[in-house]
# Entry
Amino acid sequence: MTNPPDAAPVEGADPLWRGGWYRFARALPSPNFNARPADAVIDLIVIHAISLPPGVYGGGAVQRFFTNRLDWSAHPWFEQIRGVEVSAHFYIERSGALWQFVSCDDRAWHAGASHWRGRDGCNDDSVGIELEGADGDRFTSEQYEALAAVCTALAQRYPIGHVAGHQHIAPARKWDPGAGFDWRLLQAHLDWPDRYFPEGVLNSRLG
# Structure
């Protein structure tokens, strides 16, 4: 893991980043990561939605899941994910609270089998951001504000040129962040050109 979150600040360092760690996220390092390929160009942000168990918010289960500390017996649904080892770089709670599990310089395990902008294996060159939510649910204004802030900070450090949902990079098996995610609102927060976003999402309307 590069530049651990307790590293001392360096004079003249980036005010937003300590290595690949965002200064305004609460760091909770996950063991579920590895090195990116040497030639990786980190130009994609992948947005996900998660809640554990599905539709239940709060309680810290997601944080425990990403750090391999989830009590599988705590809820019957957890048997479906027993032993799974995954992570994301960031997680945003309904309140807007922001957590970071993996340095953005490293490869988090969030995308799985995936393809976007002509490349397979999106874990290699993307940053994964999980929103506390469920397929079809709306997200909170606090989450959009936190998401926009971290996307802006990422674009200042990495050559970000694409934002997509998990549903776009793995359409045969994933549906998040789902119909409840407002892509136009995110674009309004970021003021990024249409070309950054998946085709068609900016024309969709929430019901």
